[in-house]
User: Which sequence fits this backbone?
């Protein structure tokens, strides 16, 4: 429910504006990608506006919101026609979309595998849910659906082999962000001024953070002992900094926020897709906690 309202408000804040950059070279790919993202977002918006069931559901039948979405969709429709009149763009987007879809499916596979594994491990399950039987039952029910879904996805050999590559890269990225958050936690625990501020001088909370930081240090040391990983993280960071700079460079005044909004809306859309099957806040939180 919360996710859907976030999604709707993102759609509404997404400016229905073209990316107007005229740059060439390396910035071209960035702008093309964002045009494709825009097509996706606009299409989603137009589809939503034309489906009264969905519209009522997502707006909780709020007539003001419905009218807002329909007005936006009318603008979006015009914009979409213009973008889609470019056959080159449309065919390039088809390629980009297919790659994005594969990436999403691989992420689903990863998530589903984790969920199934969690549901099968009673120790971990008790730990993550603080032994709440309702939550345990919820996770187990979701894992049962997940298992079916996983079987379907894994019956596609092409997908499985593509996901091996993609998921290895994703795992590296995840480990890199673990390193970052572990470092952050350790730094916080070591800084008594900051710790006092964050915990509002609550010594119990501060001690809990320090205990967590001790565990974090062990994990960090283990991760950092892998020099391949450390090098990969440095190169990921460098390439991210690079593409951020070029995106900022290629953006005209309105397009930065527009592109950012569509990116978020797009990932909102993927979350919604996945949600139809299995996602719930409880599980997202549970999986999030697995990373610590
Ligand atoms: C595009 O590329 C051409 C030739 O490489 C260059 O002369 C021109 O300045 C570039 N335009 C922009 C906006 O970067
Ligand atoms: C409208 O949306 C609902 C779900 O919200 C879906 O089941 C239905 O197929 C959609 N109808 C059309 C015509 O796309
Ligand atoms: C309907 O949506 C509008 C605009 O987002 C909001 O201001 C209003 O409070 C909503 N009405 C109800 C009954 O929720
Ligand atoms: C069509 O889209 C392609 C890819 O984004 C772009 O290079 C080209 O300039 C566009 N053509 C027109 C007429 O806008
Ligand atoms: C279950 O999870 C715990 C961590 O919570 C782990 O130590 C253990 O190896 C797992 N057991 C299996 C069979 O995977
Ligand atoms: C157990 O989880 C359920 C569902 O999330 C929640 O409603 C309930 O309050 C929890 N029970 C305890 C004892 O925390
Ligand atoms: C299998 O996965 C590949 C890669 O994602 C996709 O192109 C293809 O359409 C899928 N095949 C089936 C039968 O779903
Ligand atoms: C501790 O955190 C404060 C901000 O809360 C910062 O100003 C200070 O430089 C930090 N000290 C160290 C040693 O990092
Ligand atoms: C300090 O934090 C603990 C644990 O979060 C909490 O139980 C306790 O009430 C807090 N103490 C004060 C004085 O706020
Ligand atoms: C070290 O990290 C790399 C890159 O993430 C990974 O492929 C490799 O399996 C890791 N090695 C060990 C021993 O964990």
Assistant:
């Amino acid at each position: 429910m919360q996710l859907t309202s976030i999604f709707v408000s993102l759609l509404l804040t997404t400016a229905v504006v073209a990316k107007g950059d005229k740059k060439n070279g390396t910035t071209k790919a960035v702008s093309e990608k964002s045009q494709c993202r825009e097509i996706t977002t606009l299409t989603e918006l137009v589809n939503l506006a034309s489906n009264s069931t969905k519209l009522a559901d997502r707006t909780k039948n709020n007539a003001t919101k419905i009218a807002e979405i329909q007005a936006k969709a009318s603008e979006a429709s015009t914009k979409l026609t213009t973008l889609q009149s470019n056959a080159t763009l449309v065919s390039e987007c088809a390629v980009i979309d297919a790659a994005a879809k594969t990436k999403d499916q691989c992420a689903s596979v990863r998530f589903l595998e984790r969920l199934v594994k969690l549901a099968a491990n009673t120790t971990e399950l008790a730990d993550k849910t603080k032994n709440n039987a309702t939550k345990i039952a919820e996770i187990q029910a979701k894992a049962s659906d997940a298992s079916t879904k996983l079987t379907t996805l894994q019956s596609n050999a092409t997908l499985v082999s593509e996901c091996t590559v993609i998921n290895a890269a994703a795992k590296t990225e995840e480990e890199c962000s673990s390193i970052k958050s572990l470092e952050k936690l350790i730094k916080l625990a070591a800084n008594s001024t900051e710790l006092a501020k964050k915990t509002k001088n609550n010594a119990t909370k501060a001690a809990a953070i320090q205990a967590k930081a001790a565990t974090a240090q062990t994990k960090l040391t283990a991760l950092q002992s892998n020099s391949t990983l450390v090098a990969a993280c440095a190169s990921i960071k460098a390439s991210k900094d690079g593409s951020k700079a070029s995106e900022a460079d290629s953006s005209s005044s309105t397009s930065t926020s527009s592109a950012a909004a569509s990116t978020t809306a797009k990932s909102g859309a993927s979350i919604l897709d996945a949600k139809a099957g299995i996602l719930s806040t409880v599980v997202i939180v549970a999986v999030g906690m697995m990373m610590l």
Notes: The chain is about 85% helix and 0% strand. The longest helix spans residues 87-120.
